[in-house]
Design brief:
The protein is mostly helical. It contains 12 helices and no strands. Helix 9 (235-257) runs antiparallel to helix 11 (269-296).
Length: 314
């Protein structure tokens, strides 16, 4: 009995003791770091090459240094400060008229004055200056004889002389070309009736093209006079003239390309033939521009416009 009493307290204490702690939960594996988003690559989609012509402006043609002691006169053209250019060139022209400048310098001064007046919108005054340049065309023989004798400094003088002649003839072509700005392609307001479409093509469109052709022929005749300078004709003005002739035809072609697709489809072969003619004329002129530029080492805004159109219209 005594033994039983001794065991009972022990059992009671054991029963009242705190239960053993539960086993520790397993440590979860470390979470992976969030994966970075997949690298995105920007794919540049080239813009479609426009087949339309680029028509450079005349002031993109780099001017030659007009002569010794006249280098500073170019700064006003670089800054497009044409009023100051006229103001500073006027006394130099007076010197040239008194024989204090050579003929090559005189015609360069006149050509610069022509461009300055033109850029200021004084077209009549500009034309007057350029015609004065051409008025000196009868006098270069004495200078050319000196060049033939090998005068070391006269090669630059010959270049200045004929560059001014080329610029003046180019400007006369520009005056003729301005008539195209008044000739917008006619608007077609009809439907898809074959008779209406044919009437538009054979009457309205043909009249528009005929007027354009007359302007182009007159302008091309003036531009073509640059070739009359013969072996001394400046390559850059010959190329620029060819570029202008090409652009006149290419602009007509582009205007027809921009006609509503339904009209072009309905017009069929009639319109297609006219477009092919304009494209052929443009291509011939632009190829001549490129040929003259490559042969003369000319790489300016005009020759680049020719190469660009030819590349885009293969």
């Amino acid at each position: 009995m005594v033994r039983t009493l001794l065991i009972a307290p022990f059992l009671f204490v054991a029963a009242c003791a705190a239960p053993p702690p539960p086993p520790a939960a397993p440590t979860p594996p470390p979470m992976d770091k969030e994966a970075p988003p997949p690298e995105t690559k920007t794919v540049e989609v080239p813009e479609p090459v426009s087949k339309a012509p680029v028509v450079p402006t005349r002031d993109e043609m780099v001017r030659l240094v007009p002569g010794e002691g006249l280098e500073a006169q170019l700064e006003n053209f670089t800054k497009k400060n044409y009023f100051a250019a006229i103001d500073e060139l006027a006394p130099e022209l007076e010197k040239a008229q008194r024989g204090q400048h050579g003929l090559d310098e005189k015609v360069q001064i006149l050509a610069m004055l022509g461009q300055a007046h033109d850029m200021m919108g004084e077209k009549d005054r500009a034309a007057q200056m350029y015609r004065r340049v051409l008025g000196e065309w009868r006098r270069p023989n004495a200078l050319l004889k000196r060049i033939d004798k090998g005068d070391a400094g006269d090669e630059a003088r010959r270049q200045r002389l004929f560059d001014a002649f080329g610029e003046a003839l180019f400007y006369l072509g520009e005056q003729r070309r301005e008539g195209l700005s008044e000739l917008e392609i006619p608007y077609y307001a009809g439907g898809e009736d074959p008779k209406e479409v044919s009437r538009f093509v054979t009457r309205d469109l043909s009249q528009w093209l005929g007027k354009r052709d007359r302007v182009i022929v007159r302008a091309a005749k003036e531009y073509g006079r640059i070739d009359d300078l013969g072996e001394h004709a400046p390559a850059r003005w010959r190329a620029a003239a060819a570029s202008r002739i090409g652009a006149m035809h290419a602009l007509a072609l582009q205007a027809m390309r921009d006609l509503p697709e339904g009209l072009r489809t309905a017009a069929g072969a009639e319109l297609e033939e006219r477009m092919q003619h304009e494209e052929q004329e443009a291509r011939q002129a632009y190829e001549r521009c490129r040929e003259v530029g490559d042969g003369g080492g000319v790489d300016d805004a005009f020759t680049k416009s020719c190469r660009r159109w030819l590349d885009a219209n293969r």
